[in-house]
Specification:
The chain is mainly β. Helices cover 2% and strands 48% of the residues. Among the domains are: 168 residues, Methylamine Dehydrogenase, Chain H (7 Propeller); 65 residues; 82 residues, Immunoglobulin-like.
Length: 765
């Protein structure tokens, strides 16, 4: 009851759920698609494409494990658990390795950093005598799990050359390896296993390219192909006998609990130690067993790595349950991120560089905090749609969203479902397809609502590249052929100051339309001292300036109001795209001139978050003159230096970062501020407990409000100014001393002393 009273006293907002502290990171990874499952006593580890999680069977809890929680890298290739040393080995696609012992992580980056040419992938992990044996693209690497280091490397190709090892398995007396030169064997009693001459070729499967190995009760199981790598034939090698055991498309073979678990797409088939089939599992409570991995335990339990439902536990009595952390079900693909109030929308589609379809599942992901929802498809309108590339929320009716599907048209979405699909057949010809020969496709590349609720649609490769659905539901389009015959365009900004429509795409031009009959072209090199030839991002800041991300840094349009000064019939506009000049010691240079900019987002303090193709993530000041932060994969939990999409959640200050390894969130110091304060000013965290040493974020002020914090006696202990609608306090006085336990009061006002606000913060030392 005391806890409830404190929460009511402090007025905590439910909007803080799912957030992390300021300056902290969290992930938005897809954990539903599990490719590897690894039981480890009371714990079960599961590896998705980029994230790892751990399910505690005793307490029913789930922990996420990725770069934001302390792992060293992204992109998981394999995992395996050694019960002897209680170590989970995590192998990444770039050949980096982590050793996990509970909450301790030891990184081994030797293979990743090595200058070995060709394949360095880690294809299988096995254990023997407190060592991990890694089957790699060049040989076998032995890792000492007690010393956390590589002990030796076996180059077992003919003459000691590199050879790919796709799998390996231990029998009671031997180590077998499936190599590019056939199955090879070495005795476990051999003291010089690293010498290639000590390995002998097992010639029982001549002509078969073996990719899978396992062992049970004297039976060596080998899977390989002769012609088609997708179709594997399984062989039972028992003494001198070789028999064809099974055949088909297999995803994994796992021996455990006295069973051989054979995983097909849609079934787990189990065999006993004599290779006799015991049962076949094809369904569980929520549908079919579309799985990647499965292993049996000694008690008869089966753990399955499912394609869309995480890990599934199937008990001996047939009952089952499924587990995975919350996250967007999108296989970590991302094209565009859009935020509105507390909502975040992820578009996992895209198109190729030649503007053809990528055929990525077209479901929209909408999140609030840690909860993510896909679109409901009960009416079937979502079926067959792919490549979702943009979404927008109607500001007049916020229950409606519009989404652009590349190649399909525009969807009107309400109640988490597509209500209507607009295309070339039902918009009075407003949306026109791109047609060449017998091929026809509707390339709707972007959507935007204006403040009146009119929907604007960008149609690529069309002579009418701009279309509009008015608030009365009628459609019309605009002939843009004077700008370009059929421009390739997929970026659209509705100018909140002038009401103009700015759009661009693959061509090195920016187009501007006034929404009536005037249009013009903007040369991105006009007014620029640094010539660029690609536009990758376009965004309007809170002062109305347009920031342009190019292949050589950033340019800014300060004079958007001059767009039609030369007329409005498709002429080249006098609008300038200016470089921002910054000083670097005694030298001058242009803002981020050496970076290819992929995305730009504006936060509540009008600062710019800038994503690059290979240089990570930058935060620059509102005017671009100062670099405030630079996150890379090397100096931070950032998943990758390749940033694809960015958006700032205006109410929380969270920065959503889309990378080629999935989406993550960084909680920034600035939030959006209204002209009037919110009904509720609140702090996070609150109460501030003894074990917390980070900054305290205080939200809900007028823009850039003046903040004073007092103790219960009314003495001012701290003063500052908000960044946008959020202020930061380190819990110390103006002289740098930590404040004592107690309740502290926050007062805020704008520069004229109006719009006063109050909040309470409880400090517990």
């Amino acid at each position: 009851m005391k806890r409830i009273a404190i929460l009511l006293l402090l007025g905590l907002s439910l909007a803080t759920e799912g957030q992390v502290g300021v300056g902290k990171w969290r992930d938005c990874l897809d954990y539903a698609r599990v490719e590897h499952v690894e039981p480890a006593g009371e714990l079960v580890y599961a590896a998705a494409h980029n994230g790892l999680f751990c399910y505690d069977t005793l307490y029913g809890t789930i922990d996420r494990l990725n770069k934001t929680t302390g792992l060293s890298d992204m992109g998981i290739e394999n995992i395996a658990y050694d019960a002897q040393t209680k170590c989970l080995v995590v192998a990444y696609r770039n050949s980096n390795i982590d050793l996990l012992y509970g909450d301790k992580v030891y990184n081994i980056s030797d293979i990743k950093r090595s200058e070995i040419s060709g394949d360095k992938g880690i294809h299988r992990i096995r254990f023997y005598n407190k060592k991990a044996y890694l089957a790699t693209g060049f040989g076998i690497v032995v890792v000492d799990l007690q010393r956390h280091e590589i002990k030796e490397t076996f180059y077992i190709g003919n003459g000691g050359a590199y050879t790919i090892v796709r799998d390996m398995v231990f029998s009671p007396d031997s180590l077998y390896a499936a190599t590019g030169e056939g199955i090879k064997r070495v005795s476990l009693g051999e003291t010089h296993m690293g010498i290639s001459d000590r390995w002998t070729v097992d010639d029982r499967l001549k002509g078969v390219y073996v990719t899978l190995l396992d062992y049970i009760d004297g039976h060596l199981i080998a899977g390989g192909y002769t012609y088609d790598p997708e179709m594997i034939t399984l062989y039972d090698l028992h003494g001198s006998q070789v028999s064809v055991w099974n055949g088909g498309a297999f995803r994994s073979i796992r021996v455990g609990g006295g069973y051989v678990n054979l995983v097909r797409d849609g079934a787990v088939v189990r065999y006993d130690g004599t290779m006799q089939r015991t049962d076949s599992l094809t369904t569980y409570t929520w549908g079919g067993l579309s799985c990647y991995d499965a292993v049996s335990l000694n008690d008869g339990t089966i753990w399955v790595g499912h394609e869309w439902d995480g890990i599934i536990r199937i008990r001996p009595d047939g009952s089952d349950d499924a587990h995975h952390p919350s996250g967007p079900f999108m296989q970590d693909n991302i094209y565009r991120i859009v935020t509105f109030n507390y909502r975040t929308m992820l578009c996992p589609g895209g198109h190729t560089t030649t503007y053809a379809n990528s055929f990525i599942n077209g479901n929209l992901l909408t999140g609030v905090g840690d909860e993510w929802h896909t679109l409901n498809n009960d009416n079937g309108l979502l079926s067959g749609l792919s490549d979702l590339v943009d979404v927008a929320v109607n500001p007049v009716d916020t229950t409606e969203m519009a989404a652009a599907f590349w190649g399909h048209g525009v969807a009107s979405i309400r109640d988490n479902a597509i209500q209507y699909m607009y295309n070339q057949h039902n918009t009075n010809g407003a949306l026109q397809s791109y047609t060449t020969g017998d091929y026809s496709t509707l390339r709707t590349g972007a959507v935007q609502f204006d403040r009146s609720g009119n929907l604007w649609v960008l149609v690529s490769n069309s002579s009418t590249a701009l279309a509009k659905r008015s608030t009365d539901g009628t459609w019309q389009n605009y002939n843009t052929s004077v700008l370009a015959a059929e421009p390739s365009v997929d970026k659209l900004v509705w100018d909140s100051i002038t009401g103009y429509l700015w759009f661009c795409g693959r061509n090195n031009l920016i187009y501007v339309h006034d929404g009536n009959d005037r249009m013009a072209r903007v040369n991105p090199n006009n007014g620029s001292k640094l010539s660029t030839d690609a536009i990758n991002a376009l965004v309007q800041d809170r002062l109305g300036n347009l920031w342009v991300g190019t292949n050589k840094g950033i340019k800014v349009i300060f004079d958007a109001y001059n767009a039609f000064k030369n007329g409005g019939n498709g002429e080249v506009s006098p609008v300038q795209c200016s470089n921002i000049t910054i000083t670097n010691g005694e030298f001058y240079e242009y803002l981020m001139a050496y970076e290819s900019i992929t995305s730009i987002a504006v936060d509540g303090a009008n600062r710019k978050w800038v994503g690059t193709s290979a240089g990570g993530l930058y935060l620059i000041s509102a005017n671009g003159q100062e670099q405030l932060q630079h996150f890379t994969a090397e100096n931070s939990p950032l998943f990758s230096n390749k940033i694809i999409a960015l958006a700032v959640q205006p109410r929380t200050g969270e920065v959503f970062i889309g990378t080629d390894y999935g989406v993550q969130v960084y909680r920034s110091t600035a939030t959006y501020a209204e002209s009037q304060p919110l009904n509720e000013v609140y702090a996070f965290p609150n109460p501030v407990r003894p074990d917390y040493d980070g900054p305290i974020a205080i939200k809900g002020f007028t823009r850039d409000g003046l903040i004073h914090i007092t103790d219960a006696a009314g003495h001012t202990v701290f003063s500052t100014q908000a960044l946008g609608g959020q202020a930061m306090w380190n819990g110390k006085t103006l002289t740098g001393e930590p404040v004592a336990s107690g309740v502290y009061y926050v007062f805020a006002a704008d520069a004229e002393g109006r719009n006063r606000s109050v909040a309470k913060i409880l400090i517990v030392r």
